[in-house]
Amino acid sequence: MKKALISIDYTNDFVATDGKLTTGAAGQAIEQKLVEFTKDFIEAGNYTVFAIDAHDPNDAYHPENKLFLPHNVIGTTGRNLYGSLNSLYEKNKDAATVYWIDKRHYSAFSGTDLDIRLRERGITDLYLTGVCTDICVLHTAVDAYNLGYQLHIVKDAVASFDEVGHNWALTHFQNTLGAELLELSEGEKDEYF
């Protein structure tokens, strides 16, 4: 089994208190677990992908511009990774196993070269972290399932601004997509790496 982590949209606009489309306290509460898991994943030499929304509020053809306030706008600090994840990324961004994808749509697979990069590396298992559980994480998971990847959702490293949607998505990952839901605790590191 070859593994990859897809870290989805854990940015200032989605997590910071003053973020444009923030998950607020729910997103902030997962920072430590998300960063620890990402750090361990990188240190183990596993492929780590940061799949980050890149929006242009003047794009009249993008449906999200009609659904949400402008967020993760190209060239703004709102697109920077939130908190200590940003420092971890900056420290490791030049590593051969770390990759940044700008994405236009909810799914990290839609309109990107993610599937090609994963298949080139023989990756079969995907670990997902980030926000929003019931939007971008969900759409990435559905596409990954349809492409034949085995899914692992790090339950305490995903969050949403909608608690009902978050809980529904966790159930959907497990019961409909056959994903393994992981809860991180001390001593489990060896199991995943």
TrEMBL record:
SUPFAM superfamilies for this protein: Isochorismatase-like hydrolases (SSF52499)
Alphabetical list of InterPro entries matching this protein: Isochorismatase-like_dom, Isochorismatase-like_hydrls, Isochorismatase-like_sf
Isochorismatase-like domain residues: 4-180
Record key words, sorted: Hydrolase
Single Gene Ontology MF annotation: hydrolase activity
Pfam families tied to this protein: Isochorismatase (PF00857)
Entry similarity comment: Belongs to the isochorismatase family.
PANTHER family named among the record's database cross-references: ISOCHORISMATASE (PTHR43540:SF10), PEROXYUREIDOACRYLATE/UREIDOACRYLATE AMIDOHYDROLASE-RELATED (PTHR43540)
Protein name (record): Cysteine hydrolase
Native organism: Candidatus Enterococcus myersii
